[in-house]
Amino acid sequence: MPNTIYPIRLYGDPILRGKARPIADVNAPVVVPGFTATSLRDVARNMLETMYEARGVGLAAPQIGLGVRMFVAAEYEDDEEEHEGKEPPLKSRVLHEYVMINPVLEVLDKRKELGQEGCLSIPGIYEEDVPRFREVRIRYTDLDGKEWMGEAEDYLARVFQHETDHLSGKLFLDYLPQAVTDSHRKALAEMQRKAKAKLRELEGRAS
């Protein structure tokens, strides 16, 4: 069966500001809005393919309209920080794919580093000086229902913090002065317009 590329929800979509619900049963069927029910495993694979298609390094379930606590991410052979959104990350360069269900982050190093971030739900906007903790521990469940724990530092820690934030309705712009968001007012307003149009389209399909 070919993979599905999901539409990515844009800034202004209410689901991006909601709190995602825990996944109680990894074997229960899942319905991504606008699509037929399928397994969580298939949704995770489709999310990874959607992430690759969009040239990203991570994608959280709310970004495809699914309000559950899950995200996917990939670690590449080279540092994608300079390439995200500019050059397509080749799957041949993938060192490891992550599918994290019900992730819980613990800060191991409270020192913060400033770095550049973008977001697939806020396309075309990249900002420096986004503060993130340097080292974190993350506990999560995999697609087989097995619990895992891992540690990450520097860029991978940044990715995990960014994606976990999505599950609490937080965006990277929230870490920056309001003036930064204001400077992107026109672009963000256009995203909000597109987000509303997409919601109307989905509501039309459901009725």
UniProtKB/TrEMBL annotation:
Transmembrane intervals: none
Coiled-coil region: none
GO terms under biological process: translation
Keyword vocabulary terms for this entry: Hydrolase, Iron, Metal-binding, Protein biosynthesis
EC number: 3.5.1.88
Reactions that this protein is recorded to catalyse: N-terminal N-formyl-L-methionyl-[peptide] + H2O = N-terminal L-methionyl-[peptide] + formate
UniProt-annotated binding residues for Fe cation: C119, H162, H166
Top EC class of this enzyme: hydrolase
Keyword Iron set for record: yes
Superkingdom: Bacteria
Active site: residue positions: E163
Cofactor note: Binds 1 Fe(2+) ion.
GO molecular function, one term: peptide deformylase activity
Cofactor(s) this protein cannot do without: Fe(2+)
Primary role: Removes the formyl group from the N-terminal Met of newly synthesized proteins. Requires at least a dipeptide for an efficient rate of reaction. N-terminal L-methionine is a prerequisite for activity but the enzyme has broad specificity at other positions.
PANTHER family for this protein: PEPTIDE DEFORMYLASE (PTHR10458)
Similarity field: Belongs to the polypeptide deformylase family.
Name the UniProt record assigns to this protein: Peptide deformylase
Organism: Deinococcus yavapaiensis KR-236
Lineage: Bacteria, Thermotogati, Deinococcota, Deinococci, Deinococcales
